Amino acid sequence: MKIETAVTRLTALAQVHRLAVFRLLVRKGADGMPAGEIAAALKLAPNALSFHLKGLSAAGLITSRQDGRYVIYSPDFKAMNGLLDYLTENCCADGALDAACAPPQNCQDC
Amino acid sequence: MKIETAVTRLTALAQVHRLAVFRLLVRKGADGMPAGEIAAALKLAPNALSFHLKGLSAAGLITSRQDGRYVIYSPDFKAMNGLLDYLTENCCADGALDAACAPPQNCQDC
DNA sequence: TCATTATTTCAATGATTATTGAAATAAATA
DNA sequence: TATTTATTTCAATAATCATTGAAATAATGA
User: Fold this and answer.
1) Which of A90, A101, A104 sits opposite B85 (nearest CB)?
2) What is the largest CA-CA distance in chain A?
3) CB atoms within 10 A of CB B82
4) A59 interaction partners in chain B (CB closer than 8 Å)
5) Closest residue by Cα to residue A64 from A25, A19, A24
6) Nucleotide nearest to B17 (CA to C1')
7) Helices H, strands E: what count in chain B?
8) Which residue, of A35, A43, A70, A85, has the fewest CB within 10 Å?
């Protein structure tokens, strides 16, 4: 992964509302959630939510599909896992090991 | 983890220079690296590096110790792993599983 | 002490970003 | 067609952040 891609994705997640949206979608998994339901769950104004969904989409962290008059948003787990891997890449490769440097128990429910 | 903590850490990582510094320190592991060596490796002005190290420190992602006239910086793996876990927490707990929703091979060298 | 090396702080500038209210687009139903 | 529902776009404002050059602090060695 290019560092610019990682920065783009981290920037998208580095905002309370976008992070809350992303985590909500991660919980939901492949089913996804319509925009209105996300807005209701997080008490966000529709236009504000739209602004933040655009940011997450542009970063490649979520995808959307039209379903009638609803737009359903889902997390992109490949993008997420790619980012997590990038952050821990070559961990301790050039120096001393660290006891806390261990694979986290990510995504344990899947 | 409180969402504000996660946002603070993501914000710290969401900048090319800080992300490069962090990844360099992750490679180095527990040994850490003096500020000047980081600056040389990444071709950053000392004051610019100091600004970014401050950001990473304030977010709790790195720690520092004085060694003579050097200041040695090291990654905080607990903070990093806590953040990674937070991003994948309750993955697919409320909806359909996703084939790509699997633990990444983090930190495989440790 | 004086000079050198390492790192941090400060102030000014320019750029990016979130928020708000209002309006526009798009699909479904009466 | 007209109306309602769902979502997005737009424009203005306010706030935050990175960069630069210069100066300050701190530790070492001559």
Assistant:
1) A104
2) 55
3) 17
4) none
5) A25
6) D18
7) 5, 3
8) A43
Task: Note the pLDDT tens digit of each residue in B56-107.
Answer: 999 999 999 999 999 999 999 999 999 999 999 999 999 998 988 755 443 3
Contact A92 B26 (CB under 8 A): yes
Query: Please, what is the average pLDDT of chain A?
Result: 92
Question: Using a CB-CB distance cutoff of 8 angstroms, which residues of chain A are in contact with residue B97?
Answer: 29-30, 110
Per residue in A20-49, pLDDT (tens digit) is 999 999 999 999 999 999 999 999 999 999
Chain A residue with CA closest to B93: the answer is: A27
Give the CATH number of domain A3-87; options: 3.30.70.20, 1.10.10.10, 3.30.70.1560, 1.20.1250.20: 1.10.10.10
Q: How much of chain A is helix, strand and coil, in % rounded to 5?
A: 50, 15, 35
What's the whole-model pTM score? 0.93
Calculate what percentage of chain A has a pLDDT beyond 70.
Answer: 92
**Assigned CATH for B3-86:** 1.10.10.10
On chain D, which bases lie within 7 A of the protein's CB atoms? 5-10, 17-23, 26-28
